Amino acid sequence: MLAVIMIEQTQAKRNKLINIVIFAIFFALAYLGVQQFSGGSDSPEDVLPPLAEELNSKTPFMVDEFIRADSASTKGNSFTYYYTITNAQKNDIDEAMVVNTVKPLMIEEIRTNEDMALYKKLKTTIVYSYYDANGESFTNITISPDDYLE
After folding, report:
1. How far is CA 73 from the centre of its chain?
2. Rounded (10°) CA dihedral 21, 129, 90, 19
3. Domain of residue 20, residue span
4. pTM for this structure?
């Protein structure tokens, strides 16, 4: 009986973590998607750094009770979000499960959400870098234009 309870608690923890990660990713996509870039330039090197700077001026902030948005960075045509899961340790997180669950959802979101047009227009690679409560990296989810362009 104790084993069944422990399995149920572990599954509940995993489901909660997946929901948290999905929420954070959708938040990040929505944030970038609604931003307007100015100056008439279509160059990722001109468009993406101001978006990262704007986000960084507001970080760190809590996305929800468990996820902290720490910062963002750009390099060329890549945009990286850095998050900390504040209530989890690396050894408590099933990285493969998180990536295999979240990445397909994010790809579909980029493909279908009109707010993601900037990513598609610039053919940006998006990286979500997650850290545990101790600051240890536990996964990077990379979504390339090959993933979301049809």
Report:
1. 13
2. 0
3. 2-148
4. 0.74
